């Protein structure tokens, strides 16, 4: 359902081929993607395979392509949390090792790649395609009053998103965070679009009562334009999402990251993000400070200007031209 929402909201053409793998454990999902993607590569015989981000499909498709001798291009390369307990970190590191072209979102990612032995000529600092999407779609963002569907629309509110296994799979951590959110809701209304996986964990742990505060507005998952409107008008955002750390930086909205680290340090160093972990007192104090002072707005990082995709297309076109000349 979320997949269909994003294609519709962004006006994207539907894929020519959808692998339709669905959910599963990391091993099952990665293996099934590889099993279904290999025949596609055999049939299409692509000149290259471009993968984005750090999800299981990123690594699975990169592995299939590399084993078949097809060059891999990786968008969002070089990001590191230096926490190998994160499945996404493993996906990032391995995909970068397989990639022929590595497109980075921030300048310091090149240093991460250099330390891992990646030749500098493969690395291209292009900016952030997620910010391309933000800037292009901001005029179409859905107002929060429409998203709340008839509920009283608060003039000041916080947005919450939770989905990382480290936060939602452990019952004690999940309940601790939900208690913290209930306390925050006594200070400012909290709008919480609940990821299906997170909702299932809340129900399974019997934690539903922790969302009973009338100032907690729990919603079903939102499409991209509704979420963009929600972020744009927020007083602050609490999240464990890497993408939302970037989007709030682009929007200048104070963001509190509910993790002990981030693979997007530029959002802390230059942007509006602060890493606060899952400590109740620290989160509550940080929200109180934002409400009192307006919080950290930061500045827009270099090349987060809406032109990252154009730079990627230019590099890829040049690479393909050089390859064609060599073949000829």
Describe the structure in brief.
The protein is of the alpha/beta class and 328 residues long. 48% of the residues lie in helices and 12% in strands. The protein is built from 15 helices and ten strands.
Fold and architecture overview:
By secondary structure, the chain is an alpha/beta fold. 48% of the residues lie in helices and 12% in strands. Helix 10 (196-204) links the parallel strand 6 (190-193) and strand 7. The strands form two sheets. A six-stranded parallel β-sheet has the order 7-6-5-8-9-10, sandwiched between helices.
Rg: 20 Å
Number of strands: 10
Poorly predicted ranges: none
- How far is the first residue's CA from the last residue's CA? 46 Å
Percent range of helical residues: 40-55%
Instruction: Specify the structural class.
Output: alpha/beta
Mean pLDDT: 94
Outline, from the CA principal axes?
A: globular
Throw out a few tags for this protein.
globular; 328 residues; single chain; 6-stranded parallel beta sheet; alpha/beta
Please describe the topology of this protein.
Layout: H1 2-10, H2 26-44, E1 49-52, H3 56-67, E2 72-77, H4 87-98, E3 101-104, H5 109-115, E4 123-125, H6 129-137, H7 144-147, E5 158-161, H8 165-168, H9 171-185, E6 190-193, H10 196-204, E7 216-219, H11 224-232, E8 236-239, H12 242-251, E9 255-257, H13 266-269, E10 273-275, H14 280-293, H15 308-327
Parallel strand pairs: 1-2, 2-3, 3-4, 5-6, 5-8, 6-7, 8-9, 9-10
Helix pairs in contact: 2-3, 3-4, 6-12, 9-14
């Amino acid at each position: 359902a979320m997949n269909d929402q994003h294609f519709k909201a962004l006006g994207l053409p539907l894929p020519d081929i959808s692998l339709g793998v669905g959910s599963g454990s990391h091993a099952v999902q990665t293996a099934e993607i590889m099993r279904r993607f290999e025949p596609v590569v055999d049939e299409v015989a692509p000149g290259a395979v471009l993968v984005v981000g750090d999800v299981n499909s990123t690594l699975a498709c990169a592995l299939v392509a590399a084993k078949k001798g097809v060059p891999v291009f990786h968008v969002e390369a070089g990001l590191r949390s230096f926490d190998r307990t994160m499945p996404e970190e493993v996906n990032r590191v391995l995909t970068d090792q397989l990639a022929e072209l590595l497109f980075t979102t921030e300048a310091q990612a090149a240093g991460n790649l250099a330390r891992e032995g990646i030749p500098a000529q493969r690395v291209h600092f292009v900016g952030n395609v997620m910010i391309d999407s933000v800037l292009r779609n901001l005029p179409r963002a859905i107002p929060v009053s429409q998203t709340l569907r008839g509920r009283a629309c608060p003039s000041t509110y916080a947005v919450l998103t939770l989905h990382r296994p480290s936060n939602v799979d452990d019952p004690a951590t999940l309940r601790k965070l939900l208690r913290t959110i209930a306390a925050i809701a006594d200070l400012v209304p909290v709008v919480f679009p609940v990821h299906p996986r997170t909702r299932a964990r809340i129900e399974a742990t019997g934690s539903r009562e922790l969302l009973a505060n009338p100032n907690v507005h729990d919603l079903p998952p939102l499409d991209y334009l509704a979420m963009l409107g929600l972020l744009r008008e927020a007083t602050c955002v609490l999240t464990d999402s890497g993408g939302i750390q970037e989007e709030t930086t682009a929007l200048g909205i104070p963001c509190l990251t509910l993790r002990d680290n981030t693979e997007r340090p530029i959002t802390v160093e230059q942007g509006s993000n602060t890493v606060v972990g899952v400590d109740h007192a620290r989160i509550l104090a940080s929200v109180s400070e934002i409400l009192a002072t307006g919080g950290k707005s930061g500045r827009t990082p270099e090349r987060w200007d809406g032109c990252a995709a154009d730079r990627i297309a230019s590099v890829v076109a040049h690479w393909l031209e050089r390859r064609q000349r060599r073949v000829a």
